[in-house]
């Protein structure tokens, strides 16, 4: 075996091992990304649910009836404007 | 034994050896040939089959953009839901019917349908679409073979019936069907993503092979609508439509200075979140899609045209006695003989005879020009599906009778939105273009209809309509000077104008000193003794305006009668 072929063999081995490690690394990263993406999705879902919930709870019709019925509020009948 | 061994060595050994060797060689050849076959001829098929078992093409649904009001309050929101489906070939129907109660569907019915799909050899059947994620995860948690769940989006409208006509709605597949959802479907919907992945036994993605399209979420749409004003307008309109047993109604509120649509409501309405009892008639956006004859609300335009001609001023007297005039074969009447009226009085009393005389004097050409400038009879510019195109007779089509009727608002038609738009020309003489989207605001410059001076004079005339002598007393708002014009139009029926079916209209501006808001209220076919615009529509105007002005914190401009309050306030 000449020096040249020994170097070539060494290079082949190194490239094979590094290729394997890169593939493994890539898959690990993919897993991380998958998890993060799922988390993002879940948060987006939660956000839209919360937005809906908030707007349902603060709906004008609801506030109106609550103010009138439960709190006994009413609109001022005679407005006096102070200027 | 030794003898036999001897024989073997000598005779048969060679051909036997050759036979066995040959057989092995043949077998080896067969295996090699099979290998070559698999690697060359059958390779594409096998490769594809292999891919099919590991590579999945995944669709990533894109969420539809929100629609929000001018302050960012959500009006339409998409929220993720789960669509449950089964592969009837893989599912055990008795196992499947366990989940029926969770989904609130009939177990026997579900079983029957899935079994039928099974017999037909189908491999897809919707169990239930748009299930709430919480329930869906409980159903999927039972790990029934052949039952799958896909993410999907469902549209919710938090303001429900208050905004339903403007927003429209989407179908179960998330495509816009009506209103803005239809008009801006492409803008709102975004793009679905799709990618190819390798999945392992547990459904985890272990390799991403390629991305065909990246999911792009839809864009948000911001409207000029103010949800608070929209709600007020809706509540008051609904109340009047119910109390007068009217068939329909609509109201439009515009920002007088910019033409932004602040409220756009119609009655009857529907709840877009519950499609079970949807009636097509209720889905009509009457404020935009319906044409009405504006009736007397057109009179200010006739008077403005007269002043703009330079031959009239607000004080010019017009003799309206004896309370009617004959034009061709038809008599045009006032309620009673008002005698000699100045132009202001014509508006205050809403004299048909007065405006007819003005129109006859001005002629068809200049009348048409002025009305056209005011935006009457033009197509709508919102880009709303089903937006009505107003009609206005051309000067050649206007004989004396037609000219007279146009002068008091018959024989031409406008949508409530157009009427409101044309009324913005009274604020400073310049007609604003209406806009429903924040991105459109201020895109088009306003169109000069009349001089600022004329506009101011018309505003003061409109103020007298709401005054003690006017036809629109009930439109008055305490603390503010408001102006407007009542209108009562006979409805067109089968045999011409109906005697007892009316459209009550009120179009007004507030406050007069520095206009902020334009509001048009239309009530269709009010029943009972009250049917005039001043009796039915004007009170709605007053109630909505009062609340809207308070909400927008507009400074009251009415002179204060109470001396003590004046003292307390000091000079302004």
* Number of continuous helical runs of chain A: 2
- Report the span from N to C terminus of chain B: 140 Å
Helix content, binned percent of chain B: 25-40%
Major interchain interface with per-chain residue totals = A-B, 23 and 34 residues
Q: Assign a percent range to the helix content of chain A.
A: over 70%
Number-wise, the strands of chain B total 19
Low-confidence stretches of chain A are: none
- CATH architecture annotation name of the largest domain in chain B: 3-Layer(aba) Sandwich
Helix/strand structural class of chain A: mainly alpha
Shape of chain B: elongated
Largest sheet of chain B: 5 strands, mixed
Oligomer type:
heterodimer
| Uncertain stretches of 5 or more adjacent residues of chain B | none
Number of domains of chain B: 2
Number of helices of chain B: 22
Sheet/helix structural class of chain B: alpha+beta
Instruction: Look at the structure and name the CATH superfamily of the largest domain in chain B.
Output: DD-peptidase/beta-lactamase superfamily
What is the overall pLDDT average of chain B?
A: 85
Distance between the termini of chain A: 105 Å
Give the beta-strand count of chain A: 0
CATH domain topology of the largest domain in chain B: Beta-lactamase
Summary, kept brief:
The complex is a heterodimer of chains A (83) and B (572). By secondary structure, chain A is mainly alpha-helical.
Q: How are the SSEs placed, and which strands pair?
A:
The complex is a heterodimer of chains A (83) and B (572).
Chain A: H1 3-57, H2 60-70
Chain B: H1 2-10, H2 13-39, H3 43-54, E1 55-60, E2 67-68, E3 74-86, H4 93-96, H5 100-103, H6 107-119, E4 125-131, H7 133-140, E5 147-156, H8 164-167, H9 179-183, H10 185-189, E6 193-199, E7 205-213, E8 221-222, H11 227-243, E9 248-255, E10 261-267, H12 286-289, H13 299-308, E11 317-319, E12 324-327, E13 330-333, E14 340-342, H14 343-349, H15 352-362, H16 364-373, H17 400-407, H18 416-423, H19 425-428, E15 430-431, E16 447-448, H20 452-466, E17 483-493, E18 496-510, E19 517-524, H21 533-551, H22 563-569
Parallel strand pairs in B: 2-8
Antiparallel strand pairs in B: 1-6, 2-3, 3-4, 3-5, 6-7, 9-10, 9-19, 11-14, 12-13, 15-16, 17-18, 18-19
Helix pairs in contact in B: 11-21, 13-15, 13-20, 14-20, 15-17
């Amino acid at each position: 075996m000449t020096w040249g072929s020994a170097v070539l063999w060494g290079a082949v081995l190194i490239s094979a091992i590094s290729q394997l490690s890169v593939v493994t690394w890539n898959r690990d990263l993919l897993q991380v990304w998958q998890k993060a993406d799922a988390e993002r999705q879940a948060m987006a879902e939660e956000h839209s649910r919360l937005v809906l919930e908030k707007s349902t709870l603060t709906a004008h019709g609801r506030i109106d009836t609550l103010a009138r019925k439960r709190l006994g509020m009413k609109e001022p009948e005679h407005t006096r404007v102070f200027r | 034994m030794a003898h036999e061994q001897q024989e073997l060595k000598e005779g048969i050994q060679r051909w036997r050896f050759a036979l066995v060797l040959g057989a092995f060689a043949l077998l080896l050849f067969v295996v090699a040939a099979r290998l070559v076959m698999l690697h060359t001829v059958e390779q594409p098929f096998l490769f594809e089959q292999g891919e099919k078992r590991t590579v999945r093409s995944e669709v990533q649904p894109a969420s539809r953009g929100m629609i929000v009001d001018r302050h960012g309050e959500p009006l339409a929101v998409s929220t993720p839901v789960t669509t449950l489906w089964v592969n009837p070939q893989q599912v055990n129907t008795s196992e499947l019917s366990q989940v029926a109660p969770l989904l609130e569907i009939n177990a026997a019915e579900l079983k029957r349908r899935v079994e039928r799909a099974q017999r037909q050899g189908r491999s897809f059947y919707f169990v239930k679409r748009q299930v709430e994620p919480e329930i869906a995860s409980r159903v999927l948690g039972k790990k029934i073979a052949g039952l799958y769940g896909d993410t999907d989006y469902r549209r919710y409208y938090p303001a429900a019936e208050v905004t339903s006509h403007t927003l429209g709605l989407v179908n179960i597949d998330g495509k816009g069907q009506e209103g803005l959802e239809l008009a801006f479907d492409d803008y709102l919907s975004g793009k679905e993503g799709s990618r190819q992945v390798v999945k392992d036994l547990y459904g985890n993605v272990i390799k991403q092979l390629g991305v065909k399209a990246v999911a792009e979420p839809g864009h948000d749409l911001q409207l000029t609508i103010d949800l608070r004003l929209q709600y007020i307008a809706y509540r008051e309109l609904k109340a009047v439509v119910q109390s007068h047993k009217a068939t329909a109604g609509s109201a439009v509120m515009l920002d007088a200075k910019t033409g932004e649509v602040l409220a756009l409501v119609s009655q009857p309405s529907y709840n877009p979140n519950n499609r079970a009892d949807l009636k097509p008639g209720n889905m009509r956006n009457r404020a935009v899609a319906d044409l009405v004859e504006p009736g007397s609300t057109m009179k200010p335009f006739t008077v403005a045209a007269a002043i703009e001609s330079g031959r009239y001023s607000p004080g010019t007297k017009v003799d309206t006695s004896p309370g009617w005039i004959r034009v061709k074969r038809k008599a045009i009447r006032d309620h009673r003989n008002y005698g000699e009226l100045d132009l202001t009085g014509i508006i205050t009393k809403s004299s048909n005879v007065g405006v007819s005389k003005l129109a006859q004097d001005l002629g068809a050409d200049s009348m048409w020009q002025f009305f056209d400038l005011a935006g009457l009879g033009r197509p709508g510019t919102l880009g709303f599906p089903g937006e009505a195109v107003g009609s206005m007779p051309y000067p050649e089509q206007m004989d004396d009778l037609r000219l007279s009727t146009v002068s008091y608002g018959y024989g031409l038609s406008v949508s409530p939105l157009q009427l409101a738009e044309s009324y913005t020309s009274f604020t400073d003489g310049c007609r604003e273009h209406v806009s429903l989207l924040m991105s459109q605001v201020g895109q088009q410059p306003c169109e000069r209809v009349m001089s600022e001076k004329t506009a101011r004079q018309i505003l003061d005339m409109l103020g007298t309509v709401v005054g003690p002598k006017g036809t629109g007393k009930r439109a008055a708002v305490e603390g503010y000077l408001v102006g407007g014009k009542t209108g009562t139009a006979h409805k067109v029926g089968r045999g011409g104008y109906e005697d007892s079916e009316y459209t009550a209209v009120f179009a007004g501006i507030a406050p007069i000193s520095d206009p902020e808001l334009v509001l048009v209220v239309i009530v269709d076919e009010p029943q009972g003794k009250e049917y005039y615009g001043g009796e039915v529509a004007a009170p709605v105007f007053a109630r909505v305006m009062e609340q809207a002005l308070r909400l927008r914190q507009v400074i009251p401009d009415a002179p204060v009668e109470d001396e003590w309050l004046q003292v307390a306030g000091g000079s302004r």
